[in-house]
Write a structure and sequence with these properties.
Blueprint: H1 2-19, E1 44-46, E2 51-52, E3 62-67, H2 73-89, E4 96-100, H3 112-122, E5 127-130, H4 135-140, E6 144-145, E7 147-153, E8 158-164, H5 180-189, E9 204-205
Parallel strand pairs: 3-4, 4-5
Antiparallel strand pairs: 1-2, 1-5, 3-7, 6-9, 7-8
Length: 211
Amino acid sequence: MITRIGRLFAVAMLALLTCGTMVAQNPMAPEGVKVGDNAPDFVLKNIDGTVVGPRTYSAAKGLILVFTCNHCPYSVKYEDRIIALHKEFAAKGFPVIAVNPNDSIVSPEDSYSKMQKRAADKAFPFAYLYDETQVVAQRYGARRTPHVFVLLRTRIGWTVEYIGAIDDNADNAADATQFFVADAVNALLKGTKPAQATTKAIGCTIKWKKG
């Protein structure tokens, strides 16, 4: 029993050190947006060298904005689900935009060149943008990877309609029973508001610049 408990403790500590899920969030980051707020506009460099932002999607009804990265175990677990969200909803007017907010000095695995490699290896069908200055993550109030913001187009821009997790099971997609992002987008497509507009994002803390 002692050996089993010790092993479980070691695994838990390894996950904590790798992911930093309990590390305090950046004290310099502002609160960010809340559901119902106007979504901040931005443009960032995509992995193909082009500049992309919400305005790029002139025909979109909304956007699934996902702050994610290469190295975080939670982001890796959710990659296929993020791809599936794009494949399901892009044709319906809600494409995914993925944004990597991590500082590449603190987290070398999240450098721009490694973003390009990861996107090629996984055949990402969506834009994967580099938030090198971390300004976009700060404006939105992103704290984890992954952290999702579902946006809806309005006459004057975009509103934030959902903030939080993708679903209720980070470890195993097959065991998920609540599909927060999909449910939110489906509600918006029907002209209604998401029944659950906020959830707790589960993932690694964003790796903010030091100093």
